[in-house]
């Protein structure tokens, strides 16, 4: 079974996400979109693939239960199979799974308490 197939996104907390995004736009040339982040398009074997860069407000609860100021989103091939394997291996897997038009999302906590988001993109992306 394939596990991680790539990095789907880098998410981090910021005191002022809009001002920080503006700095990245001005000084590093990032094409920050209206929703506040950047979708880097892959140029290699997956032309429809993207990696997201996105600052979140510093008081977001989205990274909980982790207290880390970041969260990495990993692309996966089969979310439900991977979550089952991680549970069988004794990993701390959060019970919640979200499924929407954006794909399937699950979460696991690493040994240092960092929350990792696992994302199975929708078919064809």
TrEMBL record:
<dbReference type="InterPro" id="IPR041581">
    <property type="entry name" value="Glyoxalase_6"/>
</dbReference>
<dbReference type="InterPro" id="IPR037523">
    <property type="entry name" value="VOC_core"/>
</dbReference>
<protein>
    <submittedName>
        <fullName>VOC family protein</fullName>
    </submittedName>
</protein>
<dbReference type="InterPro" id="IPR052164">
    <property type="entry name" value="Anthracycline_SecMetBiosynth"/>
</dbReference>
<dbReference type="Pfam" id="PF18029">
    <property type="entry name" value="Glyoxalase_6"/>
</dbReference>
<dbReference type="InterPro" id="IPR029068">
    <property type="entry name" value="Glyas_Bleomycin-R_OHBP_Dase"/>
</dbReference>
<feature type="domain" description="VOC">
    <location>
        <begin position="6"/>
        <end position="121"/>
    </location>
</feature>
């Amino acid at each position: 079974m394939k596990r991680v197939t790539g990095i789907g996104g880098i998410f981090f907390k910021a005191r002022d996400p809009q001002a920080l995004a503006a700095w990245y736009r001005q000084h590093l040339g990032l094409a920050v979109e209206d929703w506040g982040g950047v979708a880097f398009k892959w140029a290699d074997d997956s032309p429809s693939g993207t990696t997201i860069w996105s600052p979140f407000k510093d008081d977001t609860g989205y990274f909980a239960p982790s207290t880390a100021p970041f969260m990495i989103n990993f692309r996966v091939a089969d979310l439900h199979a991977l979550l089952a394997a991680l549970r069988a291996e004794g990993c701390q897997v959060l019970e919640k799974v979200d499924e929407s038009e954006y794909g399937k999302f699950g979460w696991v906590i690493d040994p240092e308490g960092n929350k990792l988001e696992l994302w199975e993109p929708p078919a064809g992306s």
